[in-house]
Design a protein that fits this description.
It is a single chain. The chain is an alpha+beta fold and 501 residues long. The mean pLDDT is 92. The strands form six sheets. Strands 3-2-1-4-14-15 form a six-stranded mixed β-sheet, with no helix packed on it. Strands 6-5-19-18-17 form a five-stranded antiparallel β-sheet, sandwiched between helices. The longest helix is centred in the first third of the chain and has 35 residues. The chain contains 16 helices and 19 strands.
């Protein structure tokens, strides 16, 4: 009888020991994780005790919190709706936050180390200071124009993106991805309503939650010729140097000829480099790319920002919106040797070349800014809850110098020629010098082409005031001309309403 009791006693003692160890594990090691978990109802209630700070652009709050009568005392609201959705993101109760709401969460929530003095003061006064305020670089005029022009584009493209930056600083003037979405239903205090709204957006085949300006890569078409032209200029080719062209050219090892978009484009055997850019001569750039070689083109693309894995756009000193890496892809054959056919196609922005709209804007900005590419950013300033103290003010930083001042000047002249004499005339602005490059890129044999435009505007003193990229996905004929028109309108608005830089 005693032996069975002893065995039971031992088992009970072991179980108590395991329970004791588990309690200590939870209290000593897991307490902080459980305390701060999004699934902890007390944490959620406590978070909504404090009014979350505003996110503002041009003196207007586009993300703010309003007092409620519910258990969660403040309701997040987005007065700009879909216009600012891909910049601001959203801060839901149970879902994961995104955008500026995510990257500046601690400061907006008032839990940042920078705001500790406010929390200490609250301990003595019994007050509940709100979160800090985030001021953006965005121009309201440029943002509204980009949104409306993309939404009502004249080629009925349902998807696209536009981004404009100040070439001198990198400050983002506008960022729109289309289709967009209204973030307000996602921050409903009803978990069921918020989840249903998110699931509807997530399952939408048009992908409204995608940030196409920063996170999507597509073949850039002839806009990539600016990169190839830069490599050519650095290899001794001048604006007036004559290069091989022609109505058609078949690369060695390939039976597929490369032709120009129209028979009237550079049918002659040779054209100058500036005319090749102005006319967007496919045969000229295909042959020049093969002559330069894959290494030079890839390296020049890398110097402009292709292949960069770690770029973010938000706060200059901290993480922000992640940016997809633009790629040049393979220009060699399966054995790693030279493949003229692949290189020729890549040199006109096809085959495996892929680019984000942001990268396109940075190429144009680098040319406009004398060869200096500034790091793009969205957060201009962080202000205290009472707006009396600034905890951060953006100080522009150079990201890289992809080309020399002389090469930038030559590229600038050629891009201006595109707008004044070539396919980019829709981007012209009275009183400003505008340069740019259109691009028409094949998407798939059974789908319409993408339309691109990258460009910049200079004031009467030659100072760059805006650089932009517009992409219209599967826009079909006229897509690049419409992208140029939209780009001109965005730059016009950015000039009239420069926003916070």
């Amino acid at each position: 009888m005693n032996a069975p009791l002893r065995r039971v006693g031992i088992v009970v003692m072991v179980l108590f020991g395991l329970l004791f160890a588990n309690l200590n594990w939870i209290q000593a090691y897991k307490a902080d994780e459980y305390r701060t978990s999004d699934y902890n109802g007390r944490v959620q209630v406590a978070e909504y005790e404090r009014k979350r700070g505003n996110i503002e652009a041009g003196g207007t709050a586009f993300a703010l919190s309003k007092e409620t009568d519910g258990e969660l005392k403040f309701q997040r609201s987005y007065p700009g709706g879909a216009r600012y959705a891909h910049i601001l993101g959203y801060k839901p109760v149970n879902l994961a936050e995104t955008g500026i709401e995510k990257f500046e969460n601690d400061f907006l929530a008032g839990t940042s180390d920078a705001l500790i003095a406010n929390r200490v003061k609250d301990m003595f006064t019994g007050d509940q200071s709100g979160g800090g305020n985030v001021l953006l670089t965005v121009s309201k005029g440029a943002q509204n124009t980009a949104f409306e022009q993309l939404r009502n584009n004249r080629v009925d493209a349902a998807k696209g993106a536009a981004i404009a930056v100040d070439p001198r600083t990198g400050a983002v003037q506008a960022l729109v991805s289309m289709p967009s979405f209204d973030p307000n239903p996602l921050v409903s205090h009803s978990t069921n309503e918020a989840t249903a709204a998110y699931n509807k957006l997530e399952q939408d085949p048009a992908g409204p939650l995608k940030n196409r300006a920063l996170g999507e890569v597509l073949p850039p078409g002839s806009t990539f010729k600016i990169v190839v032209a830069a490599a050519a200029l650095e290899s001794g080719v001048g604006q007036q140097t004559r290069i091989p062209a022609g109505a058609s050219w078949t690369p060695p090892t390939s039976g597929t000829p490369i032709r120009n978009a129209h028979p009237s484009i550079c049918p002659e055997d040779e054209v100058t480099l500036i005319n090749a850019v102005t006319e967007s001569c496919n045969t000229g750039f295909a042959q020049m790319g093969v002559r330069l070689g894959a290494d030079k083109i890839k390296e020049k693309a890398r110097q402009f920002g292709f292949e960069q894995e770690d770029l973010t756009v938000g706060h200059l000193n901290e993480a922000g919106h992640p940016v997809a890496a633009s790629r040049t892809g393979s220009m060699e054959n399966a054995d790693g040797g030279a493949d003229p056919a692949a290189l020729a196609q890549s040199s006109i922005g096809q085959r495996d070349v892929r680019m984000t709209p942001l990268q396109g804007a940075l190429i144009a900005a680098s040319v406009a800014n004398g060869g200096s590419q500034m790091r793009p950013y969205l957060v201009r300033q962080l202000l205290a809850p009472d707006r009396t103290t600034s905890y951060y003010t953006a100080k522009p930083k150079e990201l890289r110098q992809p080309v020399s001042g002389q090469v930038a000047n030559d590229l600038r002249d050629m891009m201006v020629s595109v707008v004044e004499n070539g396919s980019g005339t829709n981007a012209q602005l009275k009183g400003y010098t505008v340069g740019g490059k259109t691009g028409t890129a094949q998407s798939a044999p059974d789908r319409p082409d993408h339309g691109w435009f990258i460009g910049f505007a200079l004031d009467k003193n030659g100072t760059p005031v805006s650089a932009v990229c517009v992409m219209l996905e599967q826009a079909g004929p006229g897509g690049s001309a419409e992208a140029a028109r939209i780009a001109g309108q965005i730059m016009r608005a950015a000039i009239a309403d420069p926003g916070g830089r």
